[in-house]
Amino acid sequence: MNLVKAPAAQQNALRNAKGGGTAYLLGNYVLVDLDDKPDAPSEAELAEALGLPLCELQQAKYQWDDNGRSVHYLFAGSDDYGKNSALGALLPAVDVQTGKALIFVADRKTQATNFTPPPAPPVIREILASAAPVAALPQVSKPVTPSSLDYLKRCLSHIDPDLEYQQWAAVIAGTVDRFGHDQQAFDLLNKWSAGGCKYAGESDVSKHWRSYNAGGGVTFATVTALAREGGMGGVEAFKSWCRNNPVIHSSPLSEVRGMSICGQSQQMLASLERDVFALERLVLMNQITIFFAPPNSGKTLLTVHFLIEAAKQGDIDPTRVIYVNADDTPRGAATKASLFEQYKMNMLVPGHNGFHSDDLYPLIERLISANEARGVIIVMDTLRRFFNSMDHESTKVFGELSRRFINAGGTMLVLGHTNKNKSEAGKNRYEGTQGTVNDADAVYVLDVKSSKLNDDVTKYYVTFEASPEVGGKLRGDNELSASYSFVRYEKQTYNQLINSISKVSSSDAELTEVQRSVQSNVDNINYIEHLISKGISRRTELIKAIHDGCELSRSRATKLLDLHTGENWNNGHRWRVLKGDSEAPAAKLYQLLTNHRGCPPDKTGKLVKLELVPS
What we know:
The chain is α/β, with parallel strands linked by helices and 615 residues long.
């Protein structure tokens, strides 16, 4: 073959991009490039389109990739073709090139050495004729405005043009997805690419540009993500994205008429879910719900439990659950993901698989614009990872976006923290401004109580409260209050923790730890009363006697003694503490609140039920 080597700049650029090999100008030769794409034809289909027997087409094969699906065929042509390139004119994913276009001969997977290209079939002349129609390109689905082009320019300014090939191609594909085949957008892309050392010429950029279509799978979010990695702020990107996607109307009145929902009410009512609960009777479909709770109170645990139970019962489509876990350890995220995998739910974790917290808002925008929001449940864990609840502007952006999301059929659950300072009544308060609560349809403030069952086991009681007294609210038939319990102990697996969850009555959850202890430690309390009544009243000797007689650890014996020390019988107190006597003035002495007749353990060592004697 009499191929002329490409200029040094293009030669070096292609070598850097593709590895070892040599770049040539095609000149009179014709390259038929069969790309590895989903819509690419088979080799037999290509042979039929070229009017050649399959065996003759295979004789023209001179280069292929590792998997054998991307193949280059070379033919001997002429110098009077009207065009240098015709992408898609023969078949989808097939590019025909000649003249000033480049051919890159790799060092392997090739038979270019001593290769004689066969004559180009007649159809090649028709394709490359000056009057041959160019394959139609899709129209732009969104308006291309000066501001949107400026936004593209700013994004590209934060992206290194010497990316890995796949990322470089993704920038082009993502730009086509947003701007279609707009010439101004192409000029910006070509100028950006030309700033790198790997630039292989405008024809190379054009080839890739024309090979992609809007809706091909790579979106403009890829471009913004790469721009963010290059230093462009996520908030700036999101606000600019919103500004650069305007809705164009002919006049203010037509704008009002176009936005009015009057005339669509029945259609909207028919499309909306009935008041269907997504999670328990706490989260309604098509609503924004917020759970505010203290850190490590079990809000994530209970939410995971609610999702799994709803998936089991068929109340939700688990494949449309998007749990954004932005407040967890790697092990914690992996453990929860292993549960979600069983039900085909989705979990996004910042820093994994290209996802970042700043990607969530654009993702929601795309769900809305693609009409894919219906039935989707997004869980944001936790609120502070996505917006500043103390900032009115940040809260406003979240409120507007989430409201559009649920109006499009989605459901939003946000997990937030309570304020570290409780109310005057001792209740937890939500963290953030009133605007956060105003934007939600349902707000629950969680209260947590715990009770030691023994040295190693603690039972927790969590109450979801939506009353205005705690800052909650409801816009549906949700439960005003609901309580759940779970048990924690050492070396417990997450599955065991999940399985320990049960719904309990509000009265049970409202019991204080000391009141719960009165019910569960009757025998131990009676024995302590017996010890005190027999004169064992000094703290150190009393703790030792409790440890020995009740078979409790010293720490548990001390906890039980202190828990029931006080002056109020109704609050669970059973003895008071006094100052020491003359022999030991610094000692703590214990005295019963009432007169009790107790008795020691029986001969088996078991505690017997004691009878109370009124004072």
